[in-house]
Amino acid sequence: MRPLVLTLRTDPDERLDLSALVPHRLSDKTATEIGKLELQTGRQRITVGDIFRVRAGDPQRVRIEGGTDRFDQVGQDMAGGEIVVEGDVGNQAGRLMTNGRLIINGNAGRWAASGMQGGQVEIAGSAGDRVGGPLAGEMAGMRGGVVVVRGDVGERVGDRLRRGTIVVEGRAGAYAGCGMIAGTLIVRRAAGPLPGYLMRRGTVVLAGGCDELSPTFLDCGVHDLVAMRLMAAFVADYSAAAGAALRAPLRRLAGDMAVLGKGEVFCVGA
Amino acid sequence: MREMIVKGIHIDDTFAEAFNMRAAGVVITADSARWARQAAVTMIGFGTSVIGCGCEAGIDSELSPRETPDRRPGIRVLLFAVSTSELQKQLQNRVAQCVLTAPGSACYAGFQGDEVLKLGNALRFFGDGWQISKRLAGKHFWRVPVMDGEFVCEATTGLTKVAVGGGNLLIMGRNPKTTLAAAEAAVSAIKRVPDVIMPFPGGIVRSGSKVGSKYKASASTNEAYCPTLRGAVKSALGPEIGSVLEIVIDGLTSTAVAAAMRAGLAAMIKLGPKRGAVRIGAGNYGGKLGPHHFHLRDLLR
Question: Which of A64, A124, B56, B95 is 20 to 30 Å from B286 by CA-CA measure?
Fold first, then answer.
């Protein structure tokens, strides 16, 4: 069956909340009913039909043709199925999703995959700050699933990561993996200063090194660990380049000793 | 007892009687096939019979690096026991003492199941607080720091309650040499059958037992199949039989056990009576104890 297609008619005048357009919320609706769903975040009423041309199809496969950085909460609370966005999205894409696959063939804003619990998010372009991170007041960030960013990410990727894996094929900004509770963050190219800042547990792999590492990380030497082979095999399904980076011996730095100190940062090279 | 004669070998018209067992498996990997095998052989040691060893254990298959989770050479070991609690105890002790201790080893679930036994979840405490939990692709692993690096161990492994233990073949030959040759041919063929083990030394047992004893023992020698007692007891052996060996087979399913017995029979028939067995039988208890009956007649079809 063909996917349900939403083709962008015109760029919106305000930020929109697209969290209604997830498969489980569309499964019992006709194309006409979908067209009447409200997306506004302000006082002016804006429906799906105002922004998109709707072509009926399988609601488990949603295709959004055309994007803008004003599309917030794309795939929020997603519990299954697939959403493909041909274009950019705004903030909080894939937030709190529990299952399914969200593919963004463009760039994403801040808090992509925030609080995600399962499923897969793939961002073909770059993502903003705090990928997987919690919103203000939340105790933990991402709690499961896999996020792959083919481009670069902003600051604090993996902020308070609790479980799951984030793979960044490009560069990461400052404080990558800060406050991590557990989980795995892999950055293939260079990371900004102070990766793993105040991390308690978890694994950060910096295949391209970093600008500056906190002195509260302790050098444990270069190792070729079986766990990295496991991780390489797992990651290679999502990113061959990142998988290859894990197969070399890596220097292990334990920290952050300013807090619990049971996390680890792996760096390539001597 | 009625007999069938296939290519000069007398096949008893009888059946092997087998029992339901609990089973679990692990995949052991290491930097080389040699060390994976060393860890596996150590783990299955003293695992021939549930009567005295707590479990029956054996190597099911050797795995290429492509087939293992960490892309290193591996061995799949299966363990069988009569209760879940005993199986858990044997699994935990054997992995802790024989695999965790082996250089470069790692240990993973041998198969997935709806019910599980603790593997790394029990052994992680060896890390004394330095163990690291990792969840990858829906699987949970523990990394335990050890003196040569880390011991990686999957948190749990699958448990099956429909395993079958006690499939068997009685191999009777004119002398020990030809009997052993037949048994070795059968073992070699059965090793190629997946999901089964032969827990006795080299897959062969020479001390077949009966239930009970004149002494305070649960099992004793099966004098009916001892050629040296042929004239003194009610023997099951004719004058041409000079030696008897047995192959015991445990499998994850009754289908696997039947496939293994079929493969063993075929190998011995192919070897022929001059170089191998002159008669093949199977052990049972009259069919009243075990729910699985493997009739040799059916296995020849």
Answer: B56
User: Which residue in A has a C-alpha nearest to residue B67's C-alpha?
Assistant: A233
* Structural domains present in chain B: 3-18+162-299 (3.30.70.520), 22-160 (3.30.70.520)
pLDDT digits (tens, 9 = 90+) for A199-249: 999 999 999 999 899 999 999 999 999 999 999 999 999 999 999 989 999
In a domain, A155, yes or no: yes
Please tell me the predicted confidence (pLDDT) of residue A223.
Answer: 95
Residue A158 in domain: yes
B130 contacts in A (CB within 8 Å)? Answer: 262
Classify A84 as helix, strand or coil.
Answer: strand
**Chain B residues near any Cβ of chain A (below 8 Å):** 29, 69-72, 104, 106, 130, 132-137, 141, 143, 149-150, 152
What is the pTM for the complete model shown? 0.92
Nearest to A25 by CA among A34, A16, A36: A34
Cross-chain residue pair A233–B69, CB shorter than 8 Å: yes
Task: Give me the numbers of helices (H) and strands (E) for chain A, helices first please.
Answer: 5, 15
ipTM confidence = 0.90
Which secondary structure element, helix H or strand E, spans residue B257, and what is its range?
helix B254-271
Q: Which domain holds residue A118?
A: 107-268
